[in-house]
């Protein structure tokens, strides 16, 4: 097969720009039309945009036409009075007929709620379309804001919703709640007042027990973690018309049950959980009674993920994380059947350290229609706090080969494979595992067109050498000799200041070092 090596793409950390004699950057910018100047100023914190008024008469009143505002008291430290006076001054001198965006960080203004309400009411009168509010402790917004008909996107962090308040966000399409506790009644009230809502994002939001979304317009639900509360350890999602579902980050020990997601075509399940027990490093000394005490929890969770595969089997695009493949590893040891998946695009986000190739292979075996496979690999030290129940399977699965599937399993539709290796993964230690995975894919494909291996950093952060190119280049050559498909090895390198002489010496070492380890993979596969 053809093997291509793409030269590292160097992104310089700093560049120098020369300005011709007699020419100033200020002069060139000042010649721009007001519309473009306002677009530039809208990208700055409002305080910085305001200071441009001292540049020249040309700039004196440009800021008054701004329609996007970002107010944060960080630069004022504890001088909240100065910050409040500044916001009042800017809004009172605004000549914009309507506001595009209004972002307010008011965590230090909890004793000035009436003033905050006045600012939000002013934004509502200006038909604001996009609002971001950071507040702590939770701040209840004024009633006028809850009936803002011009609002399109809303992001509330550490805020508060009230179940008995009237919500009439008729134009709202996207809402993001962050670091909040909301109960079922508040969510139901929110959904009933947002008839045009399309996207819901919850970041570290908890308190609810059931997300029931029956709107035909809501197509996307993203849950980024689930915060601790006293509502119990389970919650449900019932969204029959949802098309995109994402469950990510830390769910702690909460179990999310999918009641109805029958219309989902794109799902990303990469969340992580914790065992209900918190063992220390001395896990090997745990007795059988300790192990059994959390076995029911793990058994229930395995059953839950089985149900995920069943409920998401008709999705065309699927992304799974390390936890999912590890649980599949355990299911296969117990000879539990995995439902056939209909996805054409499959992405796996894996930790190379102790991740189970056996579980990943089982998931691939259930995805016979897949055409595109993307695998991202990051280095994650094996969690010593895992209990015995988890460890005894993961350690066993990590050592099992994949060749047992070759005689009975074929990827009949797989055309494109891409493996992306992020910084922090040491190829010196993990080349054999990567070769196992790559060789398994190549030997079980029929119509494969392209196989890409991407390294996001040239010099390893662990061993201090260029182990990526030293090991991956020979790997690509070796894989290319066993297939007719095109194999591409790419490197993307960030360079701040590197001496060329140092690079040349490293490259010479790289050539000899890679050859010494090229034959070590055959022993692993035999």
Automatic annotation (TrEMBL):
<dbReference type="Pfam" id="PF00646">
    <property type="entry name" value="F-box"/>
</dbReference>
<dbReference type="InterPro" id="IPR032675">
    <property type="entry name" value="LRR_dom_sf"/>
</dbReference>
<dbReference type="Pfam" id="PF24758">
    <property type="entry name" value="LRR_At5g56370"/>
</dbReference>
<feature type="domain" description="F-box">
    <location>
        <begin position="26"/>
        <end position="80"/>
    </location>
</feature>
<dbReference type="InterPro" id="IPR036047">
    <property type="entry name" value="F-box-like_dom_sf"/>
</dbReference>
<feature type="compositionally biased region" description="Acidic residues">
    <location>
        <begin position="504"/>
        <end position="526"/>
    </location>
</feature>
<dbReference type="InterPro" id="IPR001810">
    <property type="entry name" value="F-box_dom"/>
</dbReference>
<dbReference type="InterPro" id="IPR050232">
    <property type="entry name" value="FBL13/AtMIF1-like"/>
</dbReference>
<protein>
    <recommendedName>
        <fullName>F-box domain-containing protein</fullName>
    </recommendedName>
</protein>
<dbReference type="InterPro" id="IPR055411">
    <property type="entry name" value="LRR_FXL15/At3g58940/PEG3-like"/>
</dbReference>
<feature type="region of interest" description="Disordered">
    <location>
        <begin position="497"/>
        <end position="526"/>
    </location>
</feature>
